[in-house]
Amino acid sequence: MKKIVVKGLAWVSVPFLWIGETAVLLFGRKLTEEECKTAKRLRVKSPEKVRVLCLGRGNAVGGVTLHRGIALFRRRDIGGDHTLDAYLKHELVHVGQYERLGGRAAFLQEYYDQIFGYVWQVRGEGKGRSHGLSCDFFLGYINAPLEIEARKLSGTRIPRYDC
User: Fold this and answer.
1) Is 126 left (phi over 0), alpha (psi -120 to 50) or beta?
2) How far does CA 59 lie from the centroid of its chain?
């Protein structure tokens, strides 16, 4: 049952991801020469295809990878001390994961499977202790092997979240 839900969610998400990626590819900037070198070190095969769009104002940074498009969000309303450079590295690791896993649908299916695997374990199968739905998803996110790899290679830390 979990595999059906995860696969369906991944396929439903692909068009939305594609729309977001298209916007970043249209309005984002190319990686600098130095960023391309960093991307190669972080296992990105085609850094010349990556675009970055930085949105918002503030000191804290968050990001999302949309296949070859990276959106970085500067925010005032959240805590955090990561720099744009650190988050760009983190998101570049995800670009490499998209490439390695075979694109949008394959990446999303694996990513969701890892996150929902934890949630399913504590909620669906009743084998673990639930911490509340939002905390279960956050704990699934921080324990997902793809996120662990991104934090390890980029040097970013687990974001703060009160559970």
Assistant:
1) left
2) 20
